[in-house]
Design a protein that fits this description.
This protein is α+β, with helices and mostly antiparallel strands. The chain contains 15 helices and 22 strands.
């Protein structure tokens, strides 16, 4: 594979080492065994099982089982590595050539060739129902240049693309299934080329997938299938693992760590992630159409206290969308919003905002979300902001805020991270991006800085561009980041080979069941 060392390092987070806790490593040394069904407690019903049309970051835990991506990432660093594209090369700054692995088929038998890749990329770029158009904005055209070769012609240089193609934009769906599907979406009938094929989805209850017997990776996957039980209440989900009803639970809240470690049958894995709890803001709608109100919100939040009270200290206070360990982190930008309720009050007065005016934010009804809401309500009250939360399940609340309804002025949720930081910023802070709740314009210099962050393969050039991006985002207070939550996964001891990853979204590539 032809890639430069610097591009490989584009998502490198120095010093971020995943760790395990409780009685030794979760990395099995014994030979993996085939068979058995992996039973997982999942915290949220998916918004869609079609990678192009879904809108929730929590979907990935399901999508990654059924859809392989053009590129993949190393678990510890998020450096891109070969996937369905066995190699790639920038032949010039505006041309990216992908060489597609031969002999791979979709679950329905359709060949995964260059034509299928072009079909998927064109759909993601231009279909009216696609929520990932912003991922591929730099692509001018996709050309089939060989039976297993696709050439992307770019409008502007984009060195983030190898990382981007390890996410939704790189998830390949069977063109046959898409052409046959009603409305051209496979929300309920997903057909990918991943390690597992779709079996069933009982809404809000269970998703079942089975081993893909023709999977291209040798000796993978090991389990015969995976059963995801949808259990939004994480305490109940954790109890299902300690009781042996399920084998694994991910996205555990920090408060559960001490409790679950007391169960002798369970082991816990934890590690740093890009997963950031934050308040998404609709800056096209009052009161957050006023920059001073957005800034006041950021000054009114005591992030250190929030981490202690809401996350049992198992998190890093967030002052931007990248954690301290990230290569593109900017320590100066992190100083913009120290906790200062008096400053917040002053800004509200300057904005003409009447103290006590209700501000409606969306949120989720689970115990941990409600606790976070209560902490924020009290913190913001001290600065003269009267916040109330309207709660709904994750998929429903996300669709209400980000979709056509544009409900609420903000949403307390999380940004689950992206392999390349430029994708994080372009998906939230460009005009037509799905996660820009109001689809509101941003300063032209911000859009220009995001483009600049993708123009060079030199990591230092990219770092400087991200400094500009981050400063513009936070000076304009387009978001209120709260905390980077650690990945926390608990599993029965028969589960072997599970590895945490920096993205904080579980993959089960190497998992097998003992006994």
């Amino acid at each position: 594979m032809t890639m430069t060392t610097r591009r490989e390092a584009m998502a490198l987070i120095s010093g971020a080492l995943a760790s395990t806790a409780l009685g030794g490593s979760a990395f099995a040394q014994a030979a993996p065994k085939k068979g058995g069904s992996l039973r997982i407690s999942a915290p949220a019903n998916p918004s869609s099982l079609d990678p192009a049309t879904g809108g929730a970051g929590s979907d990935h835990a399901f999508l990654f089982t059924m859809y392989d991506t053009l590129t993949e990432w190393e678990f510890e660093t998020l450096k891109p590595k070969p996937g369905l594209a066995e190699s790639w090369k920038f032949t010039d700054p505006n041309t990216l050539v992908l060489n597609i692995r031969s002999g791979v088929t979709f679950h329905d038998g359709t060949p995964l060739d260059a034509e299928a890749v072009k079909f998927n990329l064109d759909r993601s770029r231009s279909d009216a129902k696609s929520n990932i158009k912003a991922d591929l904005l730099s692509v001018a055209s996709v050309e089939v240049t060989g039976p297993q070769q696709v050439t992307l012609k770019l409008k502007t240089p984009d060195t983030a693309l190898p990382g981007i193609l390890s996410d939704r934009a790189g998830m390949m769906v069977s063109p046959t299934a898409l052409k046959a599907a009603e409305g051209g979406v496979v929300t309920r009938k997903p057909v990918g080329a991943g390690a597992y094929a779709f079996v069933s989805w009982a809404d809000g209850e269970k998703i079942v997938v089975k081993r893909n017997g023709k999977y291209w990776k040798p000796d993978r996957p090991c389990p015969d299938g995976i059963e995801f039980s949808i259990i939004p209440e994480l305490t109940t989900g954790a109890r299902s693992v300690t009781a042996g009803q399920n084998d694994l639970i991910y996205q555990l809240p920090p408060r559960q760590k001490a409790i679950i470690e007391r169960a002798s049958s369970v082991k816990v894995v934890h590690g740093p992630t890009l997963y950031v709890l934050q308040i998404f803001l609709n800056w096209a709608k009052p009161p957050f159409d006023n920059v001073k109100v957005r800034q006041a919100l950021n000054f009114a939040i005591d992030r250190e206290s929030f981490v202690k009270a809401a996350l049992a200290g198992l998190a890093e206070p967030a002052y931007m969308n990248l954690p301290k360990a990230h290569w593109a982190y900017d320590a100066e930008v992190a100083k913009l919003y120290p906790y200062d309720p008096d400053k917040a009050r002053k800004l509200l007065v300057e904005a003409g905002f009447k103290e006590g005016t209700p501000i409606e934010l969306g949120g989720y009804p689970d115990q941990d979300s409600v606790q976070r809401q209560e902490i924020l309500i009290e913190q913001l009250r001290k600065a003269g902001m009267n916040v109330r939360f309207v709660n709904a399940p994750i998929a429903e609340a996300s669709a209400a805020f980000f979709g056509p309804e544009k409900k609420g002025a903000g949403l307390l949720s999380a940004w689950t991270g992206r392999p390349d930081p430029s994708l994080t910023y372009s998906l939230m802070f460009t005009k037509d991006a799905y996660y820009n709740g109001g689809r509101a314009p941003v300063p032209p210099e911000l859009e220009a800085a995001i483009k600049e962050s993708r123009a060079s393969e030199d990591i230092e050039v990219r770092r400087k561009a991200f400094s500009v991006v981050q400063r513009l985002v936070m000076e304009n207070a387009f978001v209120a980041p709260l905390a980077f939550q650690f990945e926390l996964v608990a599993m029965n001891k028969k589960v072997q080979g599970y590895r945490p990853n920096l993205l904080g979204k579980p993959k089960y590539d190497d998992v097998w069941l003992e006994g």
